[in-house]
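Q: Could you write out the predicted structure for this multi-component system? I'm mainly interested in how the pieces pack against one another.
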Amino acid sequence: MDFAIQTRQLTVAYGAEPALWSVDVDIPLLGMTGIIGPNGAGKSTLLKAILGTVPTLSGRVELGAGDSSHGSSEIGYVPQRTGVDWDFPTSVLDLVMMGTYGRLKWFQRPGKNERAASMEALRQVQMDEFANRQIGELSVGQQKRVFIARAFVQQASIYLMDEPFAGVDAKTEKMLVEILHRLRDQGNTIVMVHHDLTTVTRYFDHVVLLNRTLVACGSTSEVFTSENIERAYGVPCKPTLDSP
Amino acid sequence: MVSEGLSHAVLPGLVTAFIILQDYDSPLLLIAAATSGLLMVWFTQLLQRTRMLYNDAILGIVFAGMFSVGILIVSSNLRNTHFHADCIIDGNLALAPLDRLIWHGVDLGPRAWNLMLGMFVVVVGFISICFKELKLMSFDQILARQFKLHPRFLQFMWLAIGSLTTVAAFEVAGSILIVALMIAPPAAAYLLTDNLARLLFIAAAIASVSAVGGFYLSAGLDVSPTGPIASFAGFVFLLVLAFAPKRGLIAVSIRQMRQRVAVSDCLVLDLVERQALSVDGLDDFAVKVCMPVRECQNALRRLQQRSWIEDRDGQYQLTSVGRNHLSDSLRGFGVEWAVAKT
C-alpha cells in the first residue's frame, strides 16, 4: 500500500512533558484520514511536525512520492482560524494567488495564468463572487473555503487541516465535507484533526487515534472501536455508528 | 510600535560608536546604530518567546531601557557635542542643508539628502524585488517556509533595512518625526485600501505631502520643521479617519444608519402585513409591537412615499410592490417568507 505520510519514532516536546512520544503513523495515499484524540493528545502537534514547523526531538517524517496521475506530493495546509491575521490588507483572490508563489521564480510576479487558476479554484469552492472582498469580511466557513482554494492552486495532493469544523454551523460543515469528499474523489489525500466522535464513521476512510503515543491507526472500520476509543480517551465510550 | 522602538533603540549604539571612534562622519556609526536596533528586535523576540509579558509591555521595557542607556551616555560623556537630548528627540532638520557633502571639491548637496536618497534606492529596490516574498512572509510564515522563500532571512533583512533607515533619518529627523512618519501615513493608507502594493504607494504619497506641507507650514510659522511635519501627518490621518470612503468614521456611520433604516422599514412592513393597523391607531400599534412611536411614524411615512403601503378605508395595507420588496428582503436576510397571505 502506498503512503502519503509516514512517521517513525516521532517525538516532540515543548516543555517538561512530551507532546508526542515515539509515534509511528502511516497515512495512506488517497482517502480522508481523521486524527482523533482527547485535548492535549498532540493532534495539532502531529500536523505541525508533518509540516516541519515544530522542532522534533527524534524521529522522521516521510512524504510519499505521490501517485503518478497527480504528480505532486505538495502539502496544502489550511490553518486554524486563530493562526491568521485577518486584518492583513489583502483580498480573497490575492490570498488564493499566494498558493502559486511556490511555482514562481524569485522576483517573478503572478500573472494572467495564476489569476485564472485562482479564480477557477474559487469557483470550485463557490467563492468566486467574493474574489474582491477583504479577507476579514468573510464568515468562518467562507474563510475555510478560501484556504482550501489556496491549497488547490498550490496543486497540493495532500491537504492538512487543523479542526476545519471548529466554530462552524451544521450547514456549513456539511458543505465543507462535500467539498473535501469531492477533492478526495479527485485523487487527493485529506488529513484533518477532528473532534466530533459522532461523525467519524461518516467522514473518514482512515483514523489515527492518538494520545501522545499512537493508540491505533488504520481503516475506520477496523480501528474506530470502543476498546481503542476507551484506550485513547481513558473513559468508556461507545462509538456512534450513525448511518450515512 | 516596533518602528517607535527602533527609533529609540538605535541611540545607545550610535553614541557608543561615537565615543570609541570620535569621528562624526564615519559610516561605522550607521552600522553600530543599526546593530543596536537589531539587538532591540532580537531582544524583543527573545522576551516574546518566554510568553511571560504582553507584547506592548515587552517593547516598552526594551526600547525605553535602551533609549535611557543612550541618554545616560550622552548626558554623562557627550555634554558639549552634537549629541544633545533635544537634538535626539527633535532632530535638526532646519540646519540639515548647511551640512554639505563635498567630494573632490564638488558640492554634491546636503549630506543628509544624499544619505536619504541612498536609503530610498535601497528600500524601494528591496521592496520591489522581493515584494511577493515579503508579502507572503508577513502574512503566512508556514507557507513561506514551505515554498522555501527563507522567511527568517527575509524577516531579518526587512528589520535590518528598517533599522538602517531609522538610523539614517535619525540625525536630521529626530526620533519623534521618525515615529510620526513611520506610523501615521501607513495607518491612513490602511483605511483607504485593501491592497498591499497600493497601500505602500498611498503611504509614501501621504508622507511626502506631509513633509512638504509641514515644511512650508513651519516656514510660515517661523518654527522648527519637526513639529509641523509630524502634526501635518497626524492631521492627514485624522482627515482620512473621518472621510475615508469605505472605512472612515462618517462613511461607517452613514452606512449603519442606512442599514438601520432599511431594516426597520422592512420590520414595519412585515408588522403591517401581519397585524391590523388603522390609520389613526398608530399609538396602540407602537405599544403592541414595542417600537418607539417616532420610529414607527417615520417608517410609515417612508413606506407610503415609496407606495409600499397604502391607505385602504382607514386601514394600512401592503401594495403588491411592497409585498414583493418584503419577500425579497426577508429572503436576503435568510429569514423565510413567513407572512400568511390573507
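A: Regarding packing and overall arrangement: Chain B touches chain A at residues 129-133, 135-136, 138-140, 142-143, 145-149, 190, 193-196, 199 (CB under 8 Å).
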